[in-house]
Amino acid sequence: MSRSERKLRRSPLAREANITGWLFVSPMVLGFVCFLLFPMLMAFYMSLNDWPLLGSVEFSGLDNYKNALSDSAFWKVLGNTFYFSAGLVPLNIILALLLALLLSRSLPLMGLFRTAIFTPVITSLIVWSIVWKYMLATDMGFVNQMLNLLGIEGPAWLYDPKLAMPAVIVTSVLKNVGLNMVLFIAALQQVPAHLYEAAKLDGAGRTRSFFNVTLPMITPTLFLTVIMTIIGSLKVFGQIYVMTQGGPGNSTKVLVYTIWETAFKLFDLGYASSLAFILFFIIMAFTLLQWQLRKRWVFHEN
Amino acid sequence: MKTDSAIPAPAPAASAPYRSRRVSPGSIVRYVLLTAISVVMILPFVWMLSTSLKEPSDIFVFPPKWIPSPIRWANYSEVLDAIPFGRFYWNSVYIAALVTIGTVLFASLSGYAFARIPFVGRNAVFLLLLSTMMIPHEATSIPMFLFMRELNFLNTHVPLIIVPIFGAGGVFGIFVMRQFFLTLPKELEEAAMIDGCSRVGIYGRIMLPLAGPAIATLTIFTFLTCWNEFYDPLIFLNDRNLMTIPLGLSLFTDEAGTAWHHLMAASVMATLPLLIVFFFAQKQFIAGVAMTGLKD
């Protein structure tokens, strides 16, 4: 193989392919090196330094990481981030799957429902968060007005340390559930109809055929979706910025919000970079987990 | 993926009982659930529109008023007087347009080369590109901020245009275009090559025109991502006249406080145009956005 390859490389056709090939990819590769690869290496180097925006830079080895790991505020932030993920991911996945199942029949109005549920996905997260902040206003916000109609006095949703995070989680689920729903609908349509017929002939009811046919067949999509939703949820920022600014009392302060605050409000770029790399390591762990577990399910994909 | 003729059947399991005209209890439950969740999804938009046309004194009345009376259009003109909304709009539109054009152009060039031109180092470079897609943007944006400061590009649109084209979005675009070009038959190119067509000619005159669907999907994906981008404008922009819609709007929330009639009027203006486009091109939108879920 190597011999024939070498032969190919010497031929004028191969030379032409090399030159045009590299020419075609050069803008992207150059841009990639300048705007992704180099910044990434630079960010790692910065995380090993005491690096204020103004003033002198000092190499500090792993101090930033050590400081983070021994800081209770960091663990609180990490805990909040995982709380957000642990709340959002199951709610999002279960609701998306339920909606996909409800919509997977061709009945009247299904297209309309799908459009309605998908609309928040294309809406700006900032607009969605502003509107929900308004709807969740304590005194006469829409939600509390509705509760009032039922004779319940609504709580101060976004100003109660116990309620702020759940409120942000629910509004975030509503914003993005349509995306996973669409992916699940596509997966459900890929399940061959003859499998359902076979299950029916074998006397399986609706529930049995869901657990024994549908679920195993959509496992690859389900799994990919779960991992992508987890990774996305670890990067939560916009809704926190608009709705709570990390409050009340740091109860909704998440990792990316802290990275942003540390870098661009407190101008401690070195420490912020180390926090960003901790986020990167967590995301990498989930990505590797996805690759590992995917291998097990690979037979479903063929 | 299999292409059995049986697959597209949208109602595989136990569809027979539903064929009859009689309304089953199951389908009542189905419609009730779907109506309830759809109402929850649409309600924020309705309430936003309703509030945007209310007198300030009508906002917090109890029980809530659904239809504003009198209708107060002045809320909109007051917002336009308070913030340079037209500028936000123009900034958002032209930045998203340039990012989209740049991404489609460069990603399709690279995607074609990775799919079809057997150059040395092709697979290694492609794998390197793909492996960086999970890098969180928050990490690279810190050094990027320093570079842009060195180059005097802070408080300009340059970083907002350049970075997304060549960052993770661009890499994802390459992947999408490559996957598409791989599905096109090789015979097309071989015939063109025998006719003496150059690679550039093949790309420009044969492959690109065939890539319409992939380009449409990538366009919508890129445009929407850029249109709704918040983090980068927040970092790079200070000057209000340079701000994009999401950033300008978030800043306005700090100023407007609880002037919800103004905030909702601004939100309506920010949302409506895209929403209208969405209703007319739903299929393409859903395909484009669904790609986000497949990213990585």
Which chain pair shows the most residues in contact? A-B, 115 and 112 residues
Are there runs of chain B of 5+ residues with pLDDT below 50, and where?
1-18
Uncertain ranges of chain A: none
Give the mean pLDDT of chain A. 89
Helices of chain B, by number, come to 15
Oligomer: heterodimer
Order of helices and strands of chain B: HHHHHHHHHHHHHHH
Q: Could you characterize what this model shows?
A:
The complex is a heterodimer of chains A (302) and B (296). Chain A folds into 2 domains: 46 residues; 237 residues, MetI-like (MetI-like fold, Orthogonal Bundle), CATH 1.10.3720.10. Helices cover 75% and strands 1% of the residues of chain A. Chain A contains 13 helices and 2 strands. In chain A, 44% of the residues are buried. The longest helix of chain B is centred in the middle third of the chain and has 32 residues. The radius of gyration of chain B is 24 Å and the shape is globular. Chains A and B meet through helix 2, helix 4, helix 5, helix 6 and helix 7 of A and helix 2, helix 4, helix 5, helix 6 and helix 7 of B.
Task: List the SSEs and their pairings.
The complex is a heterodimer of chains A (302) and B (296).
Chain A: H1 2-10, H2 12-47, E1 49-50, E2 58-59, H3 63-69, H4 72-103, H5 110-122, H6 125-135, H7 142-149, H8 164-190, H9 193-201, H10 206-234, H11 238-243, H12 255-264, H13 269-297
Antiparallel strand pairs in A: 1-2
Helix pairs in contact in A: 2-13, 4-8, 4-10, 5-8, 8-10, 9-10, 10-13, 12-13
Chain B: H1 16-19, H2 25-52, H3 74-82, H4 85-116, H5 122-131, H6 137-150, H7 158-166, H8 168-183, H9 186-194, H10 199-210, H11 212-227, H12 231-236, H13 245-256, H14 260-280, H15 282-294
Helix pairs in contact in B: 2-14, 3-14, 4-7, 4-8, 4-11, 8-11, 9-10, 11-15, 13-14
